[in-house]
Specification:
alpha+beta; 8 strands
Length: 188
């Protein structure tokens, strides 16, 4: 086995171990640890698995997509250097043509849920291709501008998950996909 394959397998095992340890540590503190993708799937009804950045392409042909925010739709953030796995968040309220409230997980606080936080369209064309999002440690909109693919429409009413909601204890690794390059076989 070459070093790159070994390193990739080791990294995957380390991440899996951390994923299993983090919910236990969070539960010990009285809260559940959430990643954005499983939480968005649970509350929106958009049944897509995998890293958040893959949701937009996976939704093609399965769900309607567009540039207009609607309650219950999922805002799909593109991946960036600062956010390599992307992000997904459910629209909980439309305030105006350029402002919505989002409900999402793992943004301001690792594993934490935030309900009805502000997101503002700052794109020059007003097409929701760039947004600023409320960031709790700052107590206001963050300074970063995040590129957005658009909105994935669930076609159903969003679910209301309260603080007592407990996710399944089954570990769903489909939202953790290794981002490894394909290797060419060794010439022998």
């Amino acid at each position: 086995m070459n070093f790159r394959v070994f390193a990739a397998r080791f990294a995957l095992m380390a991440v899996c171990t951390l994923m299993m340890a983090a919910p236990q540590a969070a539960s010990a503190k009285g809260r559940t640890f959430w990643q954005c993708a499983p939480y968005a799937r649970e509350i929106s009804g958009v049944n897509i698995h995998g890293n958040a950045w893959t949701w937009w392409s996976q939704a093609a042909g399965r769900y309607q997509r567009g540039e207009t925010p609607k309650v219950g739709s999922v805002m799909s953030f593109q991946r960036t250097a600062r956010m390599p796995l992307g992000h997904v968040a459910m629209v909980s309220q439309v305030i105006s043509e350029r402002e919505v409230l989002l409900t999402h997980a793992n943004w301001s606080r690792a594993g934490g849920i935030e309900r009805n936080v502000r997101a503002v369209d700052v794109s020059p064309e007003g097409d929701w291709s760039e947004v600023k999002v409320w960031f709790a440690p700052m107590g206001g909109l963050g300074t970063s501008v995040y590129p957005v693919n658009g909105f994935i429409y669930s076609g159903g009413a969003p679910h209301d998950l309260d603080d007592d909601f407990k996710p399944s204890l089954d570990l769903d690794l489909s939202d953790l996909m290794a981002e490894a390059k394909k290797e060419t076989p060794d010439a022998g």
